[in-house]
UniProtKB/TrEMBL annotation:
Keywords carried by this UniProt record: Carboxypeptidase, Hydrolase, Metal-binding, Metalloprotease, Protease, Zinc
A GO term for molecular function: metallocarboxypeptidase activity
Catalytic activity from the UniProt record: Release of a C-terminal amino acid with broad specificity, except for -Pro
One Pfam family recorded for the sequence: Peptidase_M32
Classification via InterPro entries: Peptidase_M32_Taq (IPR001333)
Identification of the protein by name: Metal-dependent carboxypeptidase
Record: active site: E260
Protein residues bound to Zn(2+): H259, H263, E289
Taxonomy, superkingdom: Bacteria
Record note on cofactor: Binds 1 zinc ion per subunit.
Family under the similarity heading: Belongs to the peptidase M32 family.
EC number: 3.4.17.19
């Protein structure tokens, strides 16, 4: 008997159960944000805490250390599994079980408090919960950092290898060209028309489902529901998505759906043999976001694809009027003043992320107190965007992330945009006739290339390795900024 082989087999059998339980915990979160009765929030918080206690005990089980010490897999897949399990074991062993359970319980309850506060624009009602979440996350970060930077310790949960310094440098390089492009676009003589009219919810959902199908979403392994904040949940054979409907703004529904389909297709596109192993999920949130953003923007908002979307809207909404495909393309991509990150155009989106990045770094470091967050948000927003926040739901209450403790998550959105810019450049060089296919509503050439070059690998490689292998060059911001300037200077006739 080979002890090392047996140790690896025992390790993976144990890990498979842990991964399965993690999927169950994720389903509890999905239910909480979609169909759970409002009155069940307190009980659900206890359920989430209990599940996290079980998961934490498994992730820190002393047998893992023994198996990891003895296991010596002979291929890249086995070595990657061991690397990721060891990273999780080391991380979770630094966190007391009491803290892990309390974080799960408090963030589950806080999400419900945030949803109520957002609906009523009551910041004061949310601040005590937010302070509790931040205090717990800072305590967790201190355990992980062990004297190092607290924010770096939190970033590592979402983008291994990234640091606050590297992300800050990325933003410093991006900001000047983004600000210059925004200024040129907003001052341009030509301005695309805004979308006008009312679009009934049933019709929007019909088009949304057509869009999801067009982008290859597998309805046998997924479903589409409503939530306050659209999201994707699950992996393997169960990757669900949500969207929302605003009758005056059908693009909110359509592009939220396409965005979440990008996330879900990443999970569904991973090599099936990796299911219920550490390799069976997206490698990082930055790479995950690259898939959702390239589906939504470089593909879904392209001149070719918006021409097809215009036809679907004409078929569904009898009162819908669009002058022509070029004008509709401009309307889809119109740059306008707005408060909401998820509704922001491609030019301004990263500026929204930069605001959150700076504020949450200050919250984690203790330089910004929770009680001062609303004023800090409003001051920074006015400085960055040139107009004031009108209500909290359009300001610091708009995002769900902080209520559930996702500090360090926001910068991965811009990192995903950067990755998407690189992937788009490589994909267009590799897929002939792409725009002709998109104009017919056929995304298979693009999504197939992404599945083969990014999605199928799951967690096998590091985030930077995934993008570098797919593109043939190390990721950098140049392709994204070049794409944005070419696209929007064309739309605005600059």
């Amino acid at each position: 008997m080979n002890i090392r082989t047996t140790a690896y087999d025992d390790l993976m059998a144990f890990q498979r159960q842990t991964e399965a339980l993690g999927q169950v915990a994720g389903r509890l979160d999905w239910d909480r944000e979609t169909t759970m009765p409002r009155g069940a929030a307190a009980q659900r918080a206890e359920e989430c805490g209990a599940m996290e206690a079980v998961l934490h005990a498994r992730r820190t089980d002393t047998r893992l250390g023994d198996w990891l010490e003895e296991a010596a897999p002979g291929d890249d897949v086995g070595r990657a599994n061991v690397r990721l399990i060891k990273r999780s074991f080391v991380r979770n062993s630094k966190i007391p079980a009491r803290l892990a359970e309390e974080l799960a319980r408090v963030t589950s309850a806080s999400q419900g408090v945030w949803a109520e506060a957002r609906a009523t624009n009551d910041v004061a009602a949310f601040l005590p919960s937010l302070k509790q979440v931040i205090d717990l996350r800072r305590e967790e970060a201190a355990c992980l950092a062990q004297g190092g930077d607290l924010y770096d310790a939190l970033i590592a949960d979402y983008e291994p290898g990234a640091t606050a310094a590297s992300l800050g440098d990325m933003f410093d390089r991006m900001r000047p060209r983004l600000v210059a492009l925004r200024g040129a676009v907003l001052d341009a003589d030509y301005q695309p028309e805004a979308m006008e009219g009312r679009f009934d919810a049933e019709g929007q959902m019909k088009v949304a489902r057509e869009l999801a199908t067009a982008f290859g979403y597998d309805w046998d392994r997924g479903r589409l529901d409503f939530s306050v904040h659209p999201f994707s949940s699950g992996s393997g054979s169960d990757a669900r998505i949500t969207t929302r409907v605003v009758e005056s703004d059908p693009f909110n529904c359509f592009y939220s759906t396409v965005h979440e389909v990008g996330h879900a297709c990443y999970e569904l596109g991973i090599d099936p043999s990796y299911a219920l192993t550490p390799l069976g999920a997206g490698v990082s949130m930055g790479v995950h976001e690259s898939q959702s953003r390239i589906y939504e923007n470089q593909l879904g908002r392209s001149r070719a694809f918006t021409g097809w979307l215009m036809g679907r809207m004409r078929a569904q909404f009898t009162d819908f009027i669009a002058k022509d495909a070029d004008a509709f393309y401009g309307t889809v991509n119109k740059v306008r003043a707005g408060y909401i990150r998820t509704e922001a155009d491609e030019v301004q989106y990263n500026l929204h992320v930069m605001l959150r990045f700076d504020l949450e770094r200050a919250l984690v470091s203790g330089d910004l107190l929770v009680g001062d967050l609303e004023a800090a948000w409003n001051d920074r927003f006015k400085a960055d965007f040139g107009f004031g926040v009108d209500k909290p739901s359009n300001g610091m209450l708009q995002d769900v992330h902080w209520s559930v403790g996702l500090f360090g998550y926001f910068p991965t959105y811009s990192l995903g945009n950067l990755y998407a810019g690189c992937l788009n450049q490589a994909m267009r060089a590799a897929v002939p006739g792409l725009d002709k296919a998109l104009a017919a509503g056929d995304t298979s050439g693009a999504t197939g290339w992404l599945r083969e070059n990014v999605q199928t690998h799951g967690g096998l490689h590091t985030p930077v390795e995934v993008i570098t292998r797919a593109c043939g060059f190390a990721p950098h911001e140049g392709p994204l900024l070049d794409y944005l300037e070419e696209k929007f200077r064309g739309i605005y006739k600059l």
